[in-house]
Amino acid sequence: MSGEMTWRHFAPILCFVLCLSQSDEKFTVIGPAHPVQGFAGSEVVLDCKCSVGLPLPKVEVRWFRSSFAIPVHLFQDGHTNASKQDKTYRGRTELFTEEFINGNMSLKLKDVQWSDRGEYTCYIHDKQLYDEATIELQVQILGSQPWIHMAGYQGDGIKLVCESDGWSSQPEVSWEDGKQHKLTAQTTTGNSANGLIMMQTSIIATESSGNMFSCLFIDSLTKKKTEGKIQIADYF
């Protein structure tokens, strides 16, 4: 009887300990709520946080895109496994392994390329449990140096055409004369084979506007400017 009473007394405590132990093993993986912005040629960190810290020897951290079997980066059995890594990412990825214990499973991507844009999956596996989060990377590229050329006479002036290509997003475009007065322009856009944007803008330059002209392209996100200039020697 006393043995039965002892079991009944300790059963709730034992259940609590077992349930607590099981809940401690569970975890969730969280990525940023909004797309991550990266710039071509620079480094970017794709944030991935685990709700609990995990020890190095047993945890698997797998970053991949379309193929689970060909990862962007794989940490397994206590070290990085480069043999299975996507060749296009070799030498360009890094994990913060010293931060695993704090739940930081983020990926550093170096020398960002236009082809890196898109979705990444951060997959964490520990013992029999796993979870994952999806992170979107958007890549920004500044277009080429604007090139201005004369396209012939039109009316009482000369048509000036300014071109720039290789933009990841449509830039703001403007023309100025030598006194920094804004000029009315006609602008068209197109797309190259790799999906980047080509821009062409033109004005009619007249003697009343002087002989110095510049066209400016301003990146919509960074507000960085790239400028082309031309000087007209003589109108007629």
From TrEMBL:
A single cellular component GO annotation: external side of plasma membrane
Main localization category: membrane
Record-given protein name: Butyrophilin subfamily 1 member A1-like protein
Keyword match Metal-binding: no
Keywords: Disulfide bond, Glycoprotein, Immunoglobulin domain, Membrane, Signal, Transmembrane, Transmembrane helix
Transmembrane segments: none
Family according to the record: Belongs to the SKINT family.
Annotated source species: Callorhinchus milii (Ghost shark)
Residues annotated as domain Ig-like: 41-136, 154-231
Listed Pfam families: C2-set_3, V-set
InterPro entries: BTN3A2-like_Ig-C (IPR053896), Ig-like_dom (IPR007110), Ig-like_dom_sf (IPR036179), Ig-like_fold (IPR013783), Ig_sub (IPR003599), Ig_V-set (IPR013106), IgSF_BTN/MOG (IPR050504)
Subcellular compartments: Membrane
Protein's UniProt keywords contain Transmembrane helix: yes
GO BP, one annotated term: regulation of leukocyte cell-cell adhesion
Signal peptide: 1-23
One GO molecular-function entry: signaling receptor binding
